[in-house]
User: Fold Methyltransferase from Mesorhizobium plurifarium.
Amino acid sequence: MVAAREAEKRPRVSTIKYGIRPVEVVSPEQLERIHQASLAILREIGIEFRDETAIRQWKEAGADVKEHRVRLEGEMVMDLLAKAPSSFEMTSRDPSQRFEIGLDTMTFGAMQGAPNVRDLQGVRRASTIADLRDMNRLTQMLPGFHIAGGFTCEPTDIAVPWRHLHINHSSLVETNMPFFGLTTGRERAEDSIAMGRIVHGKEFMDQNAVMMGHVSGNSPLVWDATMLEGLRAFVEANQVVLLSPFVLGAANTPADIPATIAQLNAEALAALAYTQLVRPGAKMIYGQYSVSVSMRSGAPMSGMPEVTLLNAVIGQLARRYGVPWRTTASQSSAKTFDAQSGYESAVAYMSGASACANLMMHAGGWDEAGLVCCMAKFVADAEQNLLIEKYAKGISFENFDDALEAVRRIGPGGHYLGDSFTLKHFKDAFIAPEILDYLSYEQWKVKGSKDMAQRCREKAKDIIASYEQPPLDVALREELDAFVAKRQEEISPSIA
Amino acid sequence: MVAAREAEKRPRVSTIKYGIRPVEVVSPEQLERIHQASLAILREIGIEFRDETAIRQWKEAGADVKEHRVRLEGEMVMDLLAKAPSSFEMTSRDPSQRFEIGLDTMTFGAMQGAPNVRDLQGVRRASTIADLRDMNRLTQMLPGFHIAGGFTCEPTDIAVPWRHLHINHSSLVETNMPFFGLTTGRERAEDSIAMGRIVHGKEFMDQNAVMMGHVSGNSPLVWDATMLEGLRAFVEANQVVLLSPFVLGAANTPADIPATIAQLNAEALAALAYTQLVRPGAKMIYGQYSVSVSMRSGAPMSGMPEVTLLNAVIGQLARRYGVPWRTTASQSSAKTFDAQSGYESAVAYMSGASACANLMMHAGGWDEAGLVCCMAKFVADAEQNLLIEKYAKGISFENFDDALEAVRRIGPGGHYLGDSFTLKHFKDAFIAPEILDYLSYEQWKVKGSKDMAQRCREKAKDIIASYEQPPLDVALREELDAFVAKRQEEISPSIA
Assistant:
């Protein structure tokens, strides 16, 4: 109940406008060099669209197509890109869930795709549908998220061909937030859209984006049918697509940062342009997921400076193209929710915010290079989102003159604690976290010497205990349940 | 021995030139507004120099002085500031220790002033001279520091009036690095300079800066005699001073970020100008230490967004004035080396680096709001320094064209692991940390399921076990020991 009241106190984050100017890693001339290299890759090497529909569409648009290899002129790419919106809204059945994703805004989405959880007892194990529901309950209750992750953790107790049904069901029932649907293949994407339409209505979704679809590339220089089918289903239903080349530095890109950026930018440009070919004005985000790879173990490494630099350049490119971009926040490779997890996550957060990323993906729970969704970390990250929001907004000069009067009043050697300006403004001036602990060592010992992981687990338990399902019309809920049951009868639970 | 070899592999950080452009929080017009507000504070309210020598010097310079209140015209302040160097070198008896502190460089100093350690068994207790020696041994061995912290932790087993002697002794014996001397009062500052001169020679120090002195202000708007005496001793000996207003947001500054900056900037400007009055061309750094204060407990809070924003604006101001600036890296309020410690530290690191801070102070070991020097965290932070160095340097285009040839060679759907470009460049392209762990979960379990704190404690033990004292002429060492003995006879161990 305490947790519920605390969550109520603070409404969910809405549109966050950046007040800071982004860190920039390359000069305008260097940015142009990377851009031109990307266009040269698309023109000279080309890119593979392993999908017959896309191939037909590119041919009709006048591209140079040989089998699945599509070679694109820069002019065609840029003409298509010019049709893309530089900002758009997402919303949901709760009308208070409405926010803008744009070139100058920041949004937070929960993590996705973990096959394991670190649960409320701190035990690492395969995740189930019950865990996914708990994760969605936490997402719904914590104010630090704009978008529910959809498949925050995998319900591994449900057959793979049925999973997308239960994932969407939980997103739509446990939360009333915009959420990530499933895009892996035509059927799953269409099921996702159909389930969204049951709850929101087709007409509402034709006018409003309530879902986002994650469309991953296959670096180097391949987009495959499974993903492109999902892209088309979402775009045709006026929902948002996130187009993400997947970079493992030095494994599927060159061992060079600017050349890695040039390649992933070529991949992104091809998919962004294709999306506008499918539907001019389609809502889309320049995505990418990048890690460098340990040359000792082959393992992906989080929070590395090369990825931080790469992110900032992607930001510069996205602003050049006028398209919102995403980065990955809160990622860590730690095997337990320890100091490593904190260092790596905060580097990812600050690197995304300082580069003015428009969508902070995986901003909650991501540990062990994405193999674990840590419930404790999710609570910590949700609070980090609120701190990062405040940083992103920058400084207000609204009370500057009044505050300078206080300086005059207090003078040398005084103190401000009792001053009228302080009493009026201290609550808004400085944020006060609840999970980060500022007790003295002695107070902290009296309270049980709890480390951050322990405090977060307790908080997560409180929140889940106090969770209340958001209202959903009974008839719609029954229709949704029936849809899942019907599709389970139609789809074989065995993978073909 | 492994640790020693690893430390040898990587030479100590030298001059680090920024390759990124800093994040900016306020517009040029807003920056000018803050600057003008600072000048108005100095002109209209004035600032107290509670020190007769400084008062005399300000009078002679033509300032408006009434008792200890000094009112300064903007023109006088800016004329004095124009005499300050925008960069300078620090060095030591080891000629390989030579680096530049400037407007476009980054340096790392170890933490200072903790009265407690969290030791190699993870136990928190009052720190001793043996701990300080261990901290200096770690500083000497780890490649991530430019400057030894001097009083990294307090030798609480030595009488306060004698401590500065033993602190300087350890800096000069355990390390051969530039280091922080003591500035609290004329005698301690003069002892520090005298001890430096024993080892380095007066003539060498007249030409080269080997020491830095930390000169703290007394916000709001006071500089006291103890600190100003230390300032003069260091500046007259051609050593560096770091001028630091000490901000507890909403306690000794207004509860408003830009007004807090205007006040601390006024304090800094007065001290920076005074330093140039004492000795034109004096080597100095625009410092400041800022935390916001919890309105629940009164405790200082680390890693808060307000301080991140404030830091970035200080960077903008310092660049306007042409003076290097410092920020605080690695600060945390955590009571144990847990995820909170990691989050808060990395926020401080990234905020300093993204704002292009020139001196990253307390970049190693700082926990519990500075009340603890954590030996494990010190090792973790030393590695973070190397990661942050790589970020700060930005992106090289040196191999860009060759790497793009690799893109052409590999084409769609291939992979780069065996490519000649990869084999030639992967080691330089991506940094490979040793303390951050990238094993798989299964490998990590086999290796003992060690969290970061445990891995760091083990590494610290290895390093201390393999430590070798840097060479120091026997006669000089004897002279240094004799100086300490003589001064201990002269100084009463009881505080007057």
User: Anything to note?
Assistant: Chain B touches chain A through 130 residues (CB under 8 Å). Residues 2-23+82-393 of chain B form a domain with the TIM Barrel fold (CATH 3.20.20.480). The CA atoms of residues 17 and 105 of chain B lie 4 Å apart.
